[in-house]
Amino acid sequence: MEQNRLHQSRIQRKWIAARIEGHAKREALFWMITFKGNDRAIGSICFWNFDPTFHSAEIGYELHHDFWSKGVMSEALSAVINYGFNEMDLHRIEGLPIAKNEPSKRLLLKLGFKLEGTFRERIFFRGKYEDQLILGLIRTEWKNRKVS
Whole-model pTM? Predict the structure, then answer.
């Protein structure tokens, strides 16, 4: 048990070091998702694949399955999108979920992203090629959205 805990701790430190290095190189910017008053990470969000002018970026995210369908990711993504448009001066944010990931697609559409197309068999995931969607959100669309 102790050996496994030490191994997990090493993996976590390596993961964190890689995120810090990516930030230093201006390759990615990561946030960890936690609940207020608790430092246990339950997920992460990042901006990465910046265009050369840093006016657009891809957003990526993951959440521990125990917290799916509870509004956690919607709230966290909204805050990060606001940061991207207001603090980083991004013009466009893209999301590229695997096509069969319907919950992710629904979430992005709920947040105002527009479905722009499908990349057929673009990525190799869990042993097979998968289609990938491209959804985009423009700053003016975000600022002019109807918030319910």
Answer: 0.82
